[in-house]
Write a structure and sequence with these properties.
The structure holds two protein chains of two kinds.
Chain A (H helix, E strand, L loop, with lengths): L1 H6 L3 H23 L2 H11 L28 H4 L3 H9 L2 H4 L16 H11 L3
Helix pairs in contact in A: 3-7, 5-7
Chain B lengths: L1 H15 L12 H15 L17 H10 L5 H14 L9 H4 L11 E3 L4 E3 L1 H11 L14 H13 L13 H15 L9 H7 L4 E2 L2 E2 L12 E3 L4 E3 L1 H11 L10 H13 L9 E3 L1
Helix pairs in contact in B: 4-7, 8-11
Classes of the chains: A mainly alpha, B mainly alpha.
Chain lengths: 126, 286
């Protein structure tokens, strides 16, 4: 890390690096403190298979996220009740209306109840 | 559909001072097309209309410079050459070339898709080639249908696209039948289907131009002029119907067959909306 830092000459690049380091550092720390369930949830959320949340939502630590849905931040503050967040993943049409682009992950059996529960555990770490 | 109309309404409400209440869904194709064009003009006010046939490269400078690099030695050239050879050398069982059935190659693509008043159906160039062969009694396994001889079909379509380059897309709607076909295609465009419960419009209109992971979603305006396309990500040619089939399948919908009436109506709707744009196929996409 020291070697890397010394190679940086411009202030802009140094700032970028600092941001990058603290970012990846924070992610590692988050992962370390995460429950097993949340870790599984993160895997599904970042994976390109069934969950694929990153396709549309920005999430901390996720590279090249899409920008169709809102960034997933401060989830505890936005969804104080766990069941409300579960309900959005089960069938977002109930909360956002019939015209939402978000797929009904539970209602159309894209994800199981267990998988949704893992993802919700992960989302609450954001 | 409601959402497109409501954003259209938002625009017209602003214009008329809030007099309108019902979402606009004119059944007249030219009126609806006008709304579609306005929808994009509102979203990307700096993009001139004639740029839309370049897809997302109209709105993303970085991607455009990569794309222009791909065009220096375009991958499509080899497919055009193979298609030209096929077009010139292939003979129907009666010994005649395909031009005896379809007409000369120059400008042929620019006549499609069209609504045939006699059989009441939308005709796609690909399907007309297939039907020429079938009607002439070609052996089933030699017909260039998507299942048996997809590469030949795609190559010939690439050649025919190149023979209409620079011409203007000009899909005609001159009858009630054609109007109905357009409106059926419109319904298909807005219908939500499959496990993801998504419509074409969900991704390629409401969210057209946004990012899915690192890639832009294509916008529907200008999305028909350049087919067939060479896709770098897949390393092969895609006809419009193969692309639609794959896109629908990826939403977890059981797709109709390529060239089914459902997709031909959809093609008709999309192509008519692209009128006045320059034909620029075969295209290249990442």
């Amino acid at each position: 890390m020291k070697k890397f830092t010394s190679a940086i000459t411009t202030a802009g690049a140094a700032a970028l690096l600092a941001a990058g380091l603290s970012f990846s550092g924070a992610t590692m720390a988050d992962d370390a403190g995460m429950s097993e369930s949340a870790k599984k949830g993160k895997e599904i959320a970042f994976g390109r298979g069934a969950g694929n949340c990153l396709a549309c939502h920005q999430m901390k630590g996720g590279n090249l996220a899409g920008n169709i849905g809102p960034a997933l931040i401060a989830m505890q503050a936005r969804y104080p009740e766990r069941e409300d967040l579960v309900a959005v993943l089960q069938d977002p049409r109930d909360k956002f209306g019939d015209q939402t682009i978000m797929p009904p992950f539970g209602a159309n059996k894209i994800l199981s109840d267990e998988e949704i529960s893992h993802i919700v555990d992960y989302l609450y770490t954001l | 559909m409601k959402r497109l109309f409501s954003s259209m309404i938002a625009a017209s409400v602003l214009a008329t001072g809030g007099a309108m209440a019902e979402p606009a869904n004119p059944s007249d194709p030219s009126e609806f097309r006008e709304l579609m064009v306005e929808f994009y003009q509102e979203r990307y006010p700096d993009i001139p209309f004639e740029e839309y046939n370049n897809g997302v490269y109209a709105i993303d400078e970085d991607a455009r410079s990569q794309w222009e690099g791909m065009m220096i030695f375009p991958e499509t050239d080899q497919y055009i050459a193979a298609g030209e050879e096929l077009w010139n050398e292939y003979r129907l069982p009666n010994g005649k070339p395909l031009s005896s059935c379809l007409g000369e190659a120059k400008g042929l693509r620019a006549k499609y898709p069209y609504f045939n008043e006699e059989d009441g159906e939308v005709h796609s160039l690909g399907l007309d080639i297939i039907n020429c062969q079938k009607n002439a009694g070609e052996d089933a396994e030699k017909v260039w249908d998507p299942k048996n001889n997809y590469k030949k079909l795609a190559n010939v379509l690439a050649y025919l696209a190149s023979e209409s380059r620079g011409m203007t897309n000009n899909v005609q709607i001159n009858s009630e039948g054609a109007k109905d076909a357009y409106n059926r295609g419109k319904e298909a465009w807005f219908r939500r289907t499959g496990q993801l419960d998504n419509s074409c419009a969900d991704c390629h209109q409401y969210h057209g131009g946004k990012y899915v992971r690192a890639e832009h979603l294509h916008m529907n305006l200008g999305n028909t002029t350049h087919f067939p396309i060479f896709r770098y990500s897949k390393g092969k040619m895609y006809t419009m119907h193969k692309r639609i089939y794959g896109c629908v399948r990826d939403t977890g919908t059981v797709p109709f067959a390529q060239y089914s009436p459902y997709y031909r109506d959809l093609e008709f709707f999309m192509s008519y909306n692209d009128n006045e744009l320059e034909l620029n196929g075969p295209g290249i996409r990442k």
